[in-house]
UniProtKB/TrEMBL annotation:
<protein>
    <submittedName>
        <fullName>Dolichol-phosphate mannosyltransferase</fullName>
        <ecNumber>2.4.1.83</ecNumber>
    </submittedName>
</protein>
<dbReference type="InterPro" id="IPR029044">
    <property type="entry name" value="Nucleotide-diphossugar_trans"/>
</dbReference>
<keyword id="KW-0808">Transferase</keyword>
<keyword id="KW-0328">Glycosyltransferase</keyword>
<comment type="similarity">
    <text>Belongs to the glycosyltransferase 2 family.</text>
</comment>
<dbReference type="Pfam" id="PF00535">
    <property type="entry name" value="Glycos_transf_2"/>
</dbReference>
<dbReference type="GO" id="GO:0004582">
    <property type="term" value="F:dolichyl-phosphate beta-D-mannosyltransferase activity"/>
</dbReference>
<feature type="domain" description="Glycosyltransferase 2-like">
    <location>
        <begin position="6"/>
        <end position="169"/>
    </location>
</feature>
<dbReference type="InterPro" id="IPR001173">
    <property type="entry name" value="Glyco_trans_2-like"/>
</dbReference>
<dbReference type="InterPro" id="IPR039528">
    <property type="entry name" value="DPM1-like"/>
</dbReference>
Amino acid sequence: MGRVLVVVPTYNEADNVGRIVARVRAAAPAVDVLVADDNSPDGTGAIADSLAGNDPRVHVLHRAGKEGLGAAYLAGFAWARARGYDAVVEMDADGSHAPEDLPALLDAARDADVVIGSRWTRGARVLNWPWRRLLLSRVGNLYARLALGMPVSDATGGYRVYRRSALDAIDLDSVRSQGYAFQVELSRLAHRAGVRIVEVPITFAEREHGDSKMSPLIVVEALWRVTRWGLRDRLATVQARPDALARWP
Ligand SMILES: Nc1nc2c(ncn2[C@@H]2O[C@H](COP(=O)(O)OP(=O)(O)OP(=O)(O)O)[C@@H](O)[C@H]2O)c(=O)[nH]1
Ligand SMILES: [Mg+2]
């Protein structure tokens, strides 16, 4: 597999950043960690700096201000590529993505370009999520799958491995999404690029410390972008095959 970098985006995760980094280092001692912090007012960046000072495998990317999860990941991907990493992992800081699942994800990446840690494949578990969040995730994923025609059961999931082959195949400069839409957009671009995507069941747990950054705006962004991509894909199909319209019922 080569060199692996786990990118952990943080915004006000002072209670979580130390725990998650320690768990990653214990679960997968050979991987490096990059905390991508958006100048968190609660001092997460300074805590990350002290972690990095004590462990050469831990790094920190300080960003000027809160620009969203998508922008933090793109910066982390660029950081990894500039340093020749062979794979990057996306992982939330709040403990929802268990570092203990990482070896299974990395194992699956031996035969895949993208590995999605999935909440909605057989064998996965979702712990302590209120029914509203479960419903949102199920319905959102169903909509994304139907609108975009992707054989992916957890397109909004944010626990993933991208091998360099996948990052090279995707035009990352074109990505504009911020929240959950970012994960869907990368799934879509990977699918369209024809790279091999596999899903691995994970145990997903509700965050225990700190506050969620989930907002209605993030949901609306995802809904709006997925709808636009879906319509655009259909229009492109019709333009390429006008006879398909004539055969429409
Ligand atoms: N750098 C950076 N990280 C962010 C930003 N927004 C969210 N994050 C991080 O992205 C990860 C996921 O955010 P969460 O707030 O857990 O979002 P969520 O998982 O949908 O919401 P919950 O399930 O309620 O926790 C966490 O590690 C956050 O700290 C941001 O604007 N910048
Ligand atoms: Mg979370």
